[in-house]
Amino acid sequence: MTPVGTIHKTDAQTWIDIEAPYRPAMDGLEGFSHIHVLFWFHENDHAEGRQVLKVHPRKDTRNPLTGVFATHSPLRPNLIGMTLCRVVALDPPRIVIDRIDAVDGTPVLDIKCYIPSSRAFENLHLPDWV
Amino acid sequence: MTPVGTIHKTDAQTWIDIEAPYRPAMDGLEGFSHIHVLFWFHENDHAEGRQVLKVHPRKDTRNPLTGVFATHSPLRPNLIGMTLCRVVALDPPRIVIDRIDAVDGTPVLDIKCYIPSSRAFENLHLPDWV
């Protein structure tokens, strides 16, 4: 795994800077309003962080202890995070986004255009804590 | 990165087998109808596969040459694939799913419960090739 970019955050703006070798991979992003950003929870990259298999969702102990695959916890065996982001502006090498569930300095692993799927809504159900 | 499971496919069924150490992380998945499965395009894990930065979407040369971040191409700098799957049955360590864009034997990196986001539909736009 090689970071392809880095997340930056200020009070005013959130953006991704794409590393020079990967900038050609941005061509065509202008067609999409939304992207999935995959990143690495680098602050949890230690044995303890990766060994956590159950958490209380949303860090609320009133929520049942739940396997991390059934949550979006930043503690998981492979520390991949994912947020669906709205593209606010595309100014290569910068992708300005609305918000992201990651801290300033987080390494970006991949960006995938967001294509909605009708399959997402077939017989959808969710647990009570959601 | 450590595989947490493996994708299996037969004519009759598609499923994920979760490796023994990670099975506790499945608890709670029964509440969700859909999951995002993150996997590794292991067949493309060579320098040539990872150096491809532009493709014709859907392998159709009538579609414009497009940066891989603006596609779901299995050729990309980090070979992470992602499919939104419907959970057909949960029979630990097996998760039976409807279908997935990966071949039999593909290593699974992560599973994330699917929680729909209203943000996905704010001012949505997509390029013509979609």
Structure, explained:
- 2 copies of one chain form a homodimer.
- Chain A folds into 2 domains: 1-41 and 82-110, Beta Barrel (Elongation Factor Tu (Ef-tu), domain 3); 47-78, no CATH class.
- Chain A is mainly beta and 130 residues long.
- Chain A is globular.
- A 6-stranded antiparallel beta barrel of chain A has the order 1-2-7-6-3-8. A two-stranded antiparallel ribbon of chain A has the order 4-5.
- Helices cover 4% and strands 34% of the residues of chain A.
- The mean pLDDT of chain A is 93.
- Chain A has 1 helix and 8 strands.
* CATH fold call of the largest domain in chain A: Elongation Factor Tu (Ef-tu), domain 3
The greatest interface between two protein chains, and residues involved on each side, is:
A-B, 56 and 56 residues
Fourth-level CATH superfamily of the largest domain in chain A: YaeB-like
CATH architecture name of the largest domain in chain A = Beta Barrel
DSSP summary: helix tally of chain A = 1
Give the total of domains of chain A. Answer: 2
- For the record, what CATH class of the largest domain in chain A applies? Mainly Beta
Strand content of chain A: 25-35%
Mean pLDDT of chain A: 93
Estimate the helix proportion of chain A, in percent.
under 10%
Gap between N and C termini of chain A, in Å?
Answer: 32 Å
- Give the quaternary arrangement of the chains: homodimer
Q: What structural category characterises the helix and strand content of chain A?
A: mainly beta
Largest sheet of chain A: 6 strands, antiparallel, barrel
- The tally of strands of chain A reads 8
Determine Rg of chain A (CA atoms, Å). Answer: 16 Å
- The helix/strand series of chain A, from N terminus to C terminus, equals EEEHEEEEE
Spatial sequence of strands, sheet with the most strands of chain A: 1-2-7-6-3-8
Catalogue the unreliable spans of chain A: none
